[in-house]
Amino acid sequence: MNSVFEISLLLDFYGQLLTKRQYEILDLHYNSDYSLGEIGEYFNISRQGVYDNIKRGKAALNKFEQKMGLVQKFMEQKHRAEEVLVYLKRIDASKLSSEDRQNLEKVIDGITEIISKF
């Protein structure tokens, strides 16, 4: 079973490929923490109907990920950027020229900014 974080990522990447209703139900459940009952009231459907929509929506999201693999690629790139940042921070800047030190700081700041946007 997918975690809330995984479903949220899948929704971010593939949510627009779902029906509007499936997207809204999954978004309310996973991103806004609505219960099945609350979603059922909102859409005027039974809890079982909500559950079925969630089940179908999750299956569709997982199928999209199996076919395209965008979330996996995204997570691999994020992990690799974090690894590169660790190695850059290990460089002994005291042995660098002032210009090289400034360039290193700019690279570290740039990668940190990129990672924070993930």
UniProtKB/TrEMBL annotation:
Coiled coil stretches, renumbered: none
Domain of life of the source: Bacteria
HAMAP family for the chain: UPF0122
Homology family: Belongs to the UPF0122 family.
NCBIfam families registered for this protein in UniProt: YlxM
Function: Might take part in the signal recognition particle (SRP) pathway. This is inferred from the conservation of its genetic proximity to ftsY/ffh. May be a regulatory protein.
This protein's name: UPF0122 protein CDQ84_07865
Biological source species: Clostridium thermosuccinogenes
